[in-house]
UniProtKB/TrEMBL annotation:
Alphabetized GO MF terms: phosphoprotein phosphatase activity
Entry-linked Pfam families: Y_phosphatase3 (PF13350)
Family statement drawn from the similarity comment of this UniProt entry: Belongs to the protein-tyrosine phosphatase family.
Protein name: Protein-tyrosine-phosphatase
Gene3D superfamilies: Protein tyrosine phosphatase superfamily
Length: 345
């Protein structure tokens, strides 16, 4: 992984900068990018520091300069009110030595929960394309808030739900948790309840191999490769599984290394800590069975094994993610190169 500063907005307009393996003797200069021009903020040798900014009308990007290098960095998880997992996939280095551009590729949970303030923030990001992996049932129950008339939405369901999740998705809003629990209890009583981790691992394998999934993710990549697409947001309901796989395909096609693909996936765990706590409190009001609760938690948990199952399956069968998207997802060499030209710098 790259040894570059990471940025997090810990409270409004207060940004914390941290570098994983800093050289304490290395001096850095930090600039705020405004209208493509750097505005000097500070000079420091600290590996961790904080910066307070005045109220901004736009999302901030920072230029970091050292004696040997310079690069742009920005906060990865964005403060979209009402949403917990909206984030930028920029900043990752590829095997060619290039870097994924910030502000062009986003991933998120569904936009249904965004507040009016959250929508106003999204309107500042220049979003042109939304890729929605949810089923018709999900979109009818939880319709997205509209960002603008200029945004085009494509719905493509990979049809790769585990049986328990399918039971939940088909239920009404009021009954989905109870129906999911009843499905798990029924399987437990019949002796057909499989290890919860195996269910999720199977789903991540299915993303790679199932025809319906291949068709959906092929369409997604072709849309992302369209020069008119950026900025692109891809999302499902929670932004973990279907979005996790789709995001991995995009970054992997661009040449991002496996360790960074996994790191990007695992940010969902951090972003959903509070959301998962609330979800489990709700489940505990409906059941106190520890086996059922463990099974329920497995579907909202984020483990490296899950995305690694997809990545390893692709590497074992095709050698690389780029080979997989060309052979199975029917991307042409021209499309792949176009993606790299569009999203790398």
């Amino acid at each position: 992984m790259e040894n570059k500063y990471k940025v997090e907005q810990t409270r409004k307009n207060h940004f914390h900068f941290e570098i994983p393996m800093a050289n304490k003797e290395q001096e850095v200069e930090v600039f705020l990018m405004e209208n493509s021009q750097p505005n000097f903020l500070l000079k420091t040798k600290q590996e961790n520091f904080d910066i307070d900014l005045n109220e901004l009308s736009h999302r901030p990007y920072f230029l970091i300069k050292t004696k040997a290098n310079q690069y742009i960095t920005a906060e990865r998880t964005l403060p979209v009110e009402g949403m917990n997992n909206f984030r930028d996939m920029g900043g990752y280095e590829t095997d060619s030595g290039k870097t994924v551009q910030w502000g062009k590729l986003y991933r998120s949970d569904h936009i249904h929960n965004a507040t009016d303030k959250g929508i106003a923030y999204l309107q500042t990001l220049g979003i042109h394309t939304i890729i929605d992996y949810r089923s018709n049932v999900e979109t009818q129950k939880y319709p997205n808030k509209q960002i603008s008339d200029q945004v085009t939405t494509y719905q493509m369901d990979p049809s790769a739900h585990a049986a328990e999740l399918a039971a939940q998705f088909q239920s009404s809003k009021e009954e989905e948790d109870a129906n999911l629990i009843n499905e798990i209890i029924e399987q437990k009583e019949k002796g057909t309840l499989v290890d919860h981790s195996d269910v999720v691992l199977t789903q991540y394998h299915t993303f790679v191999t199932k025809k319906e999934s291949q068709e959906a993710f092929s369409k997604m990549l072709q849309i992302v490769a369209d020069p008119n697409a950026p900025a692109v947001v891809q999302h499902c309901r929670g932004g973990k599984d279907r979005t996790g796989f789709g995001s991995m395909l995009v970054l992997g096609t661009l040449g991002v290394k496996k360790e960074d693909l996994v790191e990007d996936y695992l940010l969902t765990a951090k972003n959903r800590i509070e959301r998962n706590r609330i979800k489990m409190e709700g489940y505990k009001k409906l059941t106190n069975d520890p086996v059922v609760l463990d099974q329920l938690y497995s579907f909202i948990d984020t483990k490296p094994d899950f995305i690694e199952e997809s990545i390893d399956t692709i590497h074992e069968q095709y050698g690389s993610i780029e080979n997989y998207v060309k052979k199975e997802l029917k991307l042409t060499e021209q499309m792949v190169q176009q993606m790299k030209n569009m999203y790398l710098e």
